[in-house]
Design a protein that fits this description.
This protein has six helices and seven strands. By secondary structure, it is of the alpha+beta class. β5 and β6 form a beta hairpin. α4 packs parallel to α6. The model has no long low-confidence stretch (mean pLDDT 90).
């Protein structure tokens, strides 16, 4: 059964359990935050893609619920939010409210079952253990390196991916397939960092 969820289209992909800091300044989004906090639910983050050569921008059909974990007033007077990704959803339809806020009719995607890491993905698991040695990064990540779903989402959230690559990883519904897709992306990122 579908339900309504306020949407925040952004030029980023939010993965489950990933942290997303936001600066809020438009009144429709300030109202959205107020409503979400009052009702005790999150809002949907969907990737917003620029249209090519004059085509209208569009947003992805699969997104992630963002739950507000903290808020404060920033030095510039804007509202600062700390959010964390939760459940993924599929957009069935959208409508705009009078204030311009986009609201989606959504279906929640079933959570992926916990699966162990396959031997072919051992290098990704080792990489995550190395990354978790960095305190600043470890504080941001909420990851179980022994769970294929958790490992895949955590790696996808910190790799320097373009919007299309990140969205493809979010849309994959099999954790082993996501880790397969991450292998060449991790190798490309390693080559780029060596060349910088």
């Amino acid at each position: 059964m579908s339900e309504s969820l306020p949407l925040f289209p952004l030029q980023t992909v939010l993965f489950p359990d990933a942290v997303l800091p936001l600066r809020i300044f438009e009144s429709r989004y300030i109202d959205m935050v107020r409503e979400c906090m009052r009702a005790g639910h999150g809002f949907g983050v969907v990737a917003r893609f620029s249209g090519d050569e004059g085509a209208a921008p569009w947003h992805a059909r699969i997104g992630t619920e963002a739950v507000i974990t903290d808020f404060n007033t920033l030095d510039d007077g804007l509202l600062g939010l700390q959010t964390r990704g939760q459940r993924r959803f599929v957009l069935e339809a959208t409508r705009a409210r009078e204030d311009g806020l986009l609201v989606g009719e959504i279906e929640w995607l079933a959570p992926e079952p916990a699966r162990p890491i396959a031997a072919r993905h051992g290098a990704l698991q080792t990489l995550m253990h190395e990354l978790l040695r960095h305190q600043e990064l470890a504080a941001q990540l909420q990851v179980d390196p022994d769970n294929a779903t958790s490992l895949g989402f955590a790696l996808a959230s910190i790799l320097p991916l373009d919007l299309g690559q990140a969205q493809q990883l979010l849309e994959i519904r099999d954790p082993a397939e996501r880790l397969d897709a991450l292998m060449p992306l991790v190798e490309q990122a390693a080559v780029r960092s060596e060349n910088d």
